[in-house]
Amino acid sequence: MMIVISGCFRFAAENRAAALAAALAMAAETRREDGCITYGFFADVEDENTFRIFEEWESQAHLDAHFQTAHIANFRETVAALAPMERDVSRYVVAEVTKL
Predict the structure, then answer these.
(1) Residue 41, SS3?
(2) Total domains in the fold of the chain
C-alpha cells in the first residue's frame, strides 16, 4: 500500500523566504530517497505564506527511513525556529489509485 502525506504550513510574512529555502532544500534531498514517488512543497494561491506539502511513498518502511534522515532533522529544526502559525499534516494509507 502506498503512503500519502498531505498538509500545510503557514508562516509569518517575514519568515516566508527562510521557509521557502528550507522547503526547497528538503525537497531536493528527499526526492533522492529510495521509495519516494512524489515529494513537493507548493505555494498556496490564496495565501503566499502558506505552503502545501504533498508526498507519495512506496511503503511505511520507506517513510520511516525518511524520518531518520539528517535532512528531515534539519528541516524540523528550521521550521520550529520559524514558529509556523499553522501546521496541519496528515498521513493516508492508500489501497488503490485510479487516474481521473
Answers:
(1) strand
(2) 1
Give per-residue pLDDT as tens, 58-78.
999 999 999 999 999 999 999
Distance CA 19, CA 35 (A): 25
Q: Quick check: is 100 in a domain?
A: no
Residue 9, burial from CB neighbour count under 10 angstroms (0-12, 13-18, 19+): buried
In contact, 42 and 79? CB cutoff 8 Å? no
Structure confidence at residue 81 as a pLDDT band (50, 70, 90) = very high
Q: Is residue 40 part of a domain?
A: yes
The reported pTM is 0.92
2-10 sheet: strands from edge to edge: 36-43, 50-57, 2-10, 86-94
CATH of the domain at 56: 3.30.70.100
